[in-house]
Amino acid sequence: MEGAKEPSRAPMTLFAFQTREDIKNFATGCDADIGGMSTLHFDLDESPERNKGIAGGSSTARFWGEMRLDVRPEVRGKIRGGYAGFRSKPRPSLFGEICDDVSNHQFLGLRLRLGGDPRLRNSYFVNIQTDGPVTTDLWQHRLYFKRNDGGWEDIFIPFDNFILTNTGELVQHQITMFRERIRTVGISLLGGNSGVSGTYDLGIHSIRAVNEEDVTKPPSMEKDPSHGT
């Protein structure tokens, strides 16, 4: 009798950004939705110059705009400006919501291109929402970029290093991420936290779940206590 197969450790592509339909699977939001003055665009990027060095296709996603800290006069003192972001949309089906099981993988891998104002480079965060009982819980980790020449790079973050937040605040009692059911993944830019404004421009090729044998550059192995809003 043949035994059960070992769980696959092969790299798992969670999201690729090659067509306009891929882009439509993501929701966006920024402070302008509630009275801020930042701008946000999330487009399919077919620029040969920006996509130079990308193998297996010439299209990626581009998250770009202007990060502004000011807000409209009528909401000053009521809201804080300086944020923008995108995330994958929930995926309902006839048998319930579709989620991703990454319990056999150790790292979240992102292939990204950083442009825009260099002062904003430390204000990007990656966010994961699991299918847990508290819908406002969000797992978060800062994105640490190595390159400063506008080229593409792979960033690998151990799932164990994500910090649990709720409505922008660090959760006091940290728990283990429920990696069996990943609901959404996204990236946010939190210029308001660091008091930095300016143009931002982030290219996104893919978001994957991988293991140690797939990591091409040493990841940061320390938990990141920083969190956003």
Task: Tell me what you see in this structure.
With 229 residues, this protein is mainly beta. Helices cover 4% and strands 37% of the residues. The protein has helices at residues 20-24, 191-194, and strands at 12-16, 26-30, 41-45, 60-67, 84-88, 107-116, 124-130, 137-142, 152-158, 163-166, 169-170, 182-189, 198-210. A seven-stranded antiparallel sheet has the order 2-5-12-7-8-10-11. Strand 7 and strand 8 form a beta hairpin. The chain is globular. The protein starts with 11 loop residues before the first strand and ends in a 19-residue tail after the last strand.
Specify the oligomeric state.
single chain
Radius of gyration: 18 Å
Shape verdict: globular
Average of per-residue pLDDT values: 91
Biggest sheet record: 7 strands, antiparallel
Q: What class do helices, strands and sheet pairing give?
A: mainly beta
SSE arrangement, N to C: EHEEEEEEEEEEEHE
Strand content: 35-45%
List how many beta strands DSSP finds.
Answer: 13
Instruction: Describe the strand arrangement of the main beta sheet, using strand numbers.
Output: 2-5-12-7-8-10-11
Distance between the termini: 53 Å
Fraction of residues in helix = under 10%
Number of helices: 2
Which keywords apply here?
globular; mainly beta; 229 residues; 2 helices
